[in-house]
Fold this protein.
Amino acid sequence: MREPSKALRLFLGLAGYLVFVKIVLTLAPGVFRSPAQAKVFEWPLLALWTALGGLGVFLSERTGFPQPWEEGGARRRILEPAIRGIALGILAVITDAATGWSHAVAAKMGLPSIHIEFPASALVYPGGAVIVEILYRLFPIPVLLWLLTQIPALRNRESAVFWVLAVLTSFLEPLGDLGLRSLGFATMASVFAQDYALNFLQGWTFRRRGFLAAIVVRVAFYIVWHVVPSAFAGA
């Protein structure tokens, strides 16, 4: 039996982290702000995320994506993506301070905050970053890229097809921001643009640095946007 690739083994390690999060949360229930947040960590869905992500990794190795790690790759795979994620996280915090949109959303939902309380936030949000990456990039982009490049007319246009997919899939998450229109167009547009920039940056990072670097962007963003505010709120 053929040994799994390094990329697949790394992904299975990330899937193992999701299992760890689930086990801890089972021992400490009630940390999520909404049933939807809790649902994505249910066992059947964790199995689904693992299957979808594994397929994405398998096909990413066959559609021109780089390995998620390489010798001497800490700067390109970890540090630089983390800096970009931190920068976007700071921008999100500034935007929220100027518009108050997250407080308005929390109040509408009857919650004290949209952020999960610390220290659970430090455990949950990195796991959430892995799930989001599977759903918005790691599964759909390699699968669609592989399928589309089986068409004779697109067989030698892999790069162009990827960028079209990156542009389109980057809209998936920001579409949810359209619900902020009641807070004014400027607020909605600001949050939408920043979410799109985050997703497109992750798509670019995925293509140039591999899926681990793309996840690092999201984890760094979540630390600044979710974890740090929750830690100060509990101080």
User: Anything to note?
Assistant: Residues 60 and 142 are 5 Å apart (CA to CA). The chain has ten helices and no strands. The two ends are 52 Å apart (CA to CA). Residues 18-25+40-63+74-233 form one domain.
